[in-house]
Amino acid sequence: MAIYQINDRVFNTLDRTITGEVDDVRKLSQSEVYLLAYLIENQGKIIDKMELMTVGWPKKVVVVNSLTVAVSNLRKALEDPDIISSNKGVGYTFSEQATVVHNTIDELEDEEIVKDYNNTIITPKESQKETQSLLINSFFYISIIVFLMACAFVINWVKSYVPGDI
Fold this sequence. Notes:
- This protein has about 170 residues and is of the alpha+beta class.
- It is about 50% helix and about 20% strand.
- The strands form two sheets. A five-stranded antiparallel beta sheet has the order 4-3-2-1-8, with no helix packed on it. The chain has a three-stranded antiparallel beta sheet with strand order 5-7-6.
- Helix 1 (about 30-40) packs across helix 2 and helix 1 packs across helix 3 (about 65-80).
- The model has no long low-confidence stretch (mean pLDDT about 80).
């Protein structure tokens, strides 16, 4: 279980929570946990949106709005709108001014989490191949539908000019 102390908040990757004061516990989605851990580990670096989408939603195709919403939720949970900065058109950066202390309670368990996490991540190239494959399949099926609609149109057109049943 990895625990990060971020300024006055505690981020627990196993419980998927960010805790502030005694009654202030915010539950995070799995995607938000992946994103926050990745941003923290790359503190101060600009991380590309596509890379973050691959990290946050492994083996899934999502829209950029999903990333925007997740980052907004993280800013709210950390109660600091400037802790994750937007780099317009590029990506996001976890603030270098944020104080981050990483404590591990059980290194072996932490290694298992990282190993499992690494097994679920696909590279941007793999994601691009999956997207291309999906687009090709969609194009194929749309082409079939258009062809069938054209056939139906031709049959109706021929029926209108040819006397009797076809």
